[in-house]
Design goal:
Blueprint lengths: L2 E5 L4 H17 L9 E5 L2 E6 L2 H17 L7 E8 L5 E7 L5 H13 L4 E6 L2 E6 L2 H13 L7 E6 L1
Antiparallel strand pairs: 1-7, 1-8, 2-3, 3-5, 4-5, 6-7
Helix pairs in contact: 1-2
């Protein structure tokens, strides 16, 4: 029976490469000279330290640009609350989204079932398995899910005929 998986994975090696390029660019930029701005990744969290809100916004733009150059959708980053540090300095954690959480999984299942496709969708941990009798039905579901308004990037893999 034909099937495929809907997953959300982020290549952490590419994220590290984007962060290294960003650090290199920050060291050469005039507006970051003498600042204590830094960025690092710990497991699935990126920690951004900046001198003030303006530098934090510039670092967000740099990060999204470098991730895009490495082929990573900026939607994988889930920015948390900005924390005040000493003086004007600010700190922000940004989680890297890995896997499909339960709410998003249920929403996708509901949307696909509402679309009246002749397929079955099963939640398997942090991914979804879609099975159907015809390959055309599965391809229609892929197109339908791509058109949904979901901020988290999704990949379709393991397509079996």
């Amino acid at each position: 029976m034909p099937s495929f998986d809907i997953v959300s994975k982020t290549d952490l090696a590419e994220v590290d490469n984007a962060l290294a390029n960003m650090i290199r660019e920050m060291s050469q930029r005039y507006d970051f000279k003498g600042s204590n701005a830094k960025i690092e990744r710990n497991e699935g969290v990126i920690v951004i330290n900046a001198d003030d809100d303006l530098k934090l916004k510039q670092m967000h733009e740099l990060l999204q640009g470098h991730l895009a150059r490495r082929g990573i959708d900026a939607g994988v980053i889930d920015y948390k609350q900005v924390e005040k540090a000493a003086g004007q300095a600010v700190r922000q954690n940004a989680a890297l989204r890995q896997g499909i959480d339960k709410e998003l999984g249920k929403r996708i299942v509901k949307e696909v079932k509402g679309g009246k496709f002749k397929v079955q969708v099963a939640i398997q941990g942090d991914e979804l398995r879609v099975t159907g009798k015809k390959r055309d039905d599965l391809q229609a579901v892929i197109q339908f899910v791509k058109e949904l308004d979901i901020e988290q990037p999704l990949q379709f893999e393991n397509f079996r005929d």
